[in-house]
Amino acid sequence: MLFLLLATAALLAAWAFWWEPGRLVLNETELEVPGWPEGEETRIAVIADLHVGSPRNGRDNLRRVVRRVNETLPDLVLIAGDLTIDNVLGGGFVPPEEIAEDLAALDPRYGAYAVLGNHDRWLSAARVEAALAGVGIPVLDNQGARVRVRGHDTWIAGVADYWTGHPSIEEALDGAGVGEPVILFTHNPDLFPEVPPRVSLTVAGHTHGGQVIIPFVGPGITPSRFGDRYASGHVVEDGRHLFVTTGVGTSRLGVRFLVPPEVALLRLRRCDPCEPPPE
């Protein structure tokens, strides 16, 4: 019995600390959201919490992430913050300039945009922003950009991190036209209750999906004032839509269990009227 317990513990440890952090899955989600143009679906690839340099997640893995994103043939790529790491056991710091060099290979049809996460700001917001801007990836910090996507003007609104920045949804939406479809993205989903109904979809990361799923219990520690409410996936509240990606890297402790690193591909279509997804 003792041998069986030790063997099981060793297997679970290998899964959580070695095998799963080294995986990469593509999760495709079809979303029908309000205010979106009729016609062809829009393909948005979302990556977040890259934490390049965390265990089993160096530059070689970042290049794998970029290849996987490009294979989805995205219209847009949204990078929802936390490119860098801070004090990850077993990890090693990778400069943001090197991370940006690899992200430069992203090849979306209409552009890639980024926001900064708390780890990026702890390092240096100016440095990370300059690194991304240097390879042609704009950082939207309480700013918006109008992008022509599949024949329709679309407003991409980037909002500063809820914890470490000074988020202003109002500033990010300033300039969006009446009735214009809006995608708002930010690092931390705790901002979602403040997002107005005019936004078709909010996108975030930060939570890592709890990084560990405890069977029959749920996500591990989710860094959110709302607990597991915005831990991962598609959330609908009062007709407003949120998608939270579980991210790629790890933070603090290089462990994942039942929450594999992901590239998220969102396939957006219009719904009218919109209803919450089934339980």
Short account of what is shown:
Helix content is 22%, strand content 25%. It contains 5 helices and 13 strands.
Structural summary, described in words:
- The protein is of the alpha/beta class and 279 residues long.
- It has one domain (26-270): Metallo-dependent phosphatases (Purple Acid Phosphatase, chain A, domain 2), CATH 3.60.21.10.
- 22% of the residues lie in helices and 25% in strands.
- The strands form three sheets. The chain has a six-stranded mixed β-sheet with strand order 5-6-7-8-12-11. The protein has a five-stranded mixed β-sheet with strand order 1-13-2-3-4.
Q: CATH superfamily membership, which one?
A: Metallo-dependent phosphatases
What percent of residues adopt helix (DSSP H or I)?
A: 10-25%
Order of helices and strands: HEEHEHEHEEHEEEEEEE
* SS content category: alpha/beta
The total count of helices amounts to 5
Strand content: 15-25%
Characterize the biggest β-sheet: 6 strands, mixed
Physical arrangement of strands within the biggest beta sheet: 5-6-7-8-12-11
Number of domains: 1
Number of strands: 13
The CATH class is identified as Alpha Beta
Globally, the shape reads globular
Low-confidence stretches: none
Give the radius of gyration.
Answer: 18 Å
* Secondary-structure arrangement, i.e. CATH architecture: 4-Layer Sandwich
Helices and strands in order, then pairings?
Blueprint: H1 2-19, E1 25-33, E2 42-47, H2 59-71, E3 76-80, H3 96-103, E4 112-115, H4 118-133, E5 143-149, E6 152-158, H5 169-173, E7 182-185, E8 201-204, E9 213-214, E10 218-219, E11 233-237, E12 240-244, E13 262-270
Helix pairs in contact: 2-3, 3-4
